[in-house]
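Example record used in the benchmark description.
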Amino acid sequence: MTADARPLSAAASRAKRNRSRRRWHALHPYVFVAPSLFGVFAFLLLPVLIVFGLSLFDWELLSDPVFVGLDNYVTMAADGTVWSSLGVTVLYVLLCIPLQTVLALALAMLVNQKLRGVRFFRALFVIPWIATPMVLGLVWSWIFDPRDGAINRFLEVFGVTGPAWLSETSLALPAVALVSVWQNTGYNMLFFLAGLQGIPRELHDAASADGATARQRFFRVTLPLLNPTMFFVTVTNMIGAFQAFDTIYSMTAGGPSESTTVFNYKIFHTAFREFDFGYAATLSILLFLIILAVTTAQIRFFSKRTTYDLS
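Model output (structure tokens):
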């Protein structure tokens, strides 16, 4: 080998090592995110694929599944109970989300003040969220009881006969929604409180110096800068409200006259009462698509209205 060939060979070897090193460095991020990617695939994507596959079968659990193609989807499109339960779900969402969001923001502004004992109230408001929903449902069932319940007993003091809250079709869903609002408001308050404490004080001082009133500071400074928090709270609450089940199961079991049969309860009843798991999987796919569409719409709504840089 000539003298000129040896340096060329050494340079080629170094270039090869450098390329290998660059490839390895390029793989570093994927190595670190691999556990999370595995979790997303195993616990999010794979179950969706399995449920979609199950929706193509007629399966009663104890018998062998029979492939029916898209028959379950055709049946669902013509099933009036499916769309009525979807309407109940939308009404439930409209009853819960606006009220608990406004109350959570109001509580956050209240406990954001430098008052004596404010930490105690911050913890007190979160306690309902910590409790088990099924247990809360049983407790509130007693509170709403028409004969011995706390609410009607309180109304009797003023000579008012309280209604059968959970037995009347016009009152059952608002009563259940009220329990959900009571349970989740304190939890959402924590996020709004963190958002409020992340707003620089200098911005409010500058607005005050320019003559802005407290109302103007709230709508033109505080509320716009809370958009990241508002986005997170509304998206997570919307998803949770569309998936409501446990409180309704323990309080009304979908009654009376299916007035509280939300979509998730409809899926449960189809699967574990009628033992039609293929059709229940079809309903689950529909619920997944609805939540995906609503979440996408929220993301697009907030994307141009949210700023994360407060510097």
